[in-house]
Amino acid sequence: MKQKKSWWILVIVSLGVIIPFMAPYLTFNPAKSRAMITSTTLQYPILVTHIIFAFISLITGFLQFIDRIRIKNPHIHRYIGKIYVSSVFVSGILALVVTFYIKDFTKAVAFLTLAILWLFTCWKGYRMAIIKDFKEHRIWMMRNFGLTLVAVTARIFVPVLLLTYYILNGFTLPEGREKMIEEILNVNIWVGIVLNFVIVEWSIMKKEDNSTIRNNL
Ligand code: HEM
């Protein structure tokens, strides 16, 4: 049972994007934070804990899609699943707290929406596993992991948004470089949410179509 090439590409790209973003926070030095820190006693430790648990959810989430573990070793799948769900809950609740420190309204609402959807879809996926509705469990967990990956998509899309901003402003920077970066970091999470939502719903529909075709044959 060989793992698909697309899975490997997604793992490598995701780690390649996220690790450099995480690195400054693993120094536990608030001066190295890219996010604006107004409280080193509360906001910074909460942000760092959010990042550490989010990273655990990213790694364990990837492991859950390995067919050899899920199908051949369901007890390992259940064990990793519990770590995934716990880390999403811890990281998601801390993300809600961090959102209150964000000054820009558009950016704060994007993170708030993402955190609520992340927690909700995780709870639904977990509930479906408990009541042994494994078809729905898989669908909700695909939705949830799609949201985990918004952290990756939103960052990958920054260069595309930079280009879009430049083109839409007639190849000029009317309010300077700083303003351009600020505007882009206010919308990139929204772009990630919409894009990942479309991709996940499309693959769920495709899977359902394929199984309907198989059942009708
Ligand atoms: C999916 C739900 C997530 C939510 C709601 C969320 C929320 C947040 C928030 C509110 C911030 C602070 C942003 C700021 O103050 O400018 C942040 C930063 C950060 N998060 Fe998350 N996050 C999520 C997932 C993840 C994941 C899966 C990772 C991967 C490890 C991650 C890694 C980070 C990193 C590295 C930062 C620092 C950003 C920077 O330096 O620009 N987050 N997150």
TrEMBL record:
Question: What keywords appear on the UniProt entry?
Answer: Membrane, Transmembrane, Transmembrane helix
* Matches recorded under Pfam families: DUF2306 (PF10067)
Q: Fetch the InterPro entries from UniProt.
A: DUF2306_membrane (IPR018750)
- Lineage of source species: Bacteria, Bacillati, Bacillota, Bacilli, Bacillales
Q: Which residues cross the membrane?
A: 7-26, 46-67, 79-102, 108-126, 147-167, 187-204
Give the signal peptide as a residue range, or say none if absent: none
* Stated name of the protein: Membrane protein
Name the domain of life this protein comes from: Bacteria
Q: Does the keyword Transmembrane helix apply?
A: yes
